[in-house]
Amino acid sequence: MDIITWIFTGVLAVVFAVSGVAKSVMSRARLLASGQTGIAPFPMPLVRCVAGCELLAVLGLFVPWLVGTARVLTPLAAVGLAVVMIGAATSHASLREPRAVAANTVLLALAAFVAASRFATL
User: With the C-alpha atoms ordered 52, 113, 9, 115, is the resulting torsion angle positive or negative?
Assistant: First the structure.
């Protein structure tokens, strides 16, 4: 089970690191052109804030667990990413993008699994 948790954690880290960096540095037009259409209804300051939260969550997924300090931050980071995915799925649903909603749902499930697994081993 621990190996699966680490694999899912790695998948979340890669996806949200890429997403967070893109939302941090790209313009609105470039984000929309690259497929990040879920940002359309939101002002760019909010998009940038979410990007920062995603990047902090990536650190929170690994660092506390690896150094053995404040391990509760790891499942909390996963819960935060799950909340982000609920918002993303809602945004994509309002834009009538079922494939994006499906992808958000998968990421939500991965984040929920990591959170539950890490909370269980605290």
Answer: positive
Q: State the Cα–Cα distance between residues 70 and 65, nearest whole angstrom.
A: 8
Place of tokens 């809602």: 90
Structure tokens, 52: 């920062």
CB contact at 8 A, 48 and 39: no
- The structure's pTM equals 0.95
The letter for the amino acid at 35 is: G
pLDDT tens digits, 27-45: 999 999 999 999 999 999 9
CA distance 28 to 121: 40
Q: Which of 78, 64, 84 is nearest to 13 (CA)?
A: 78
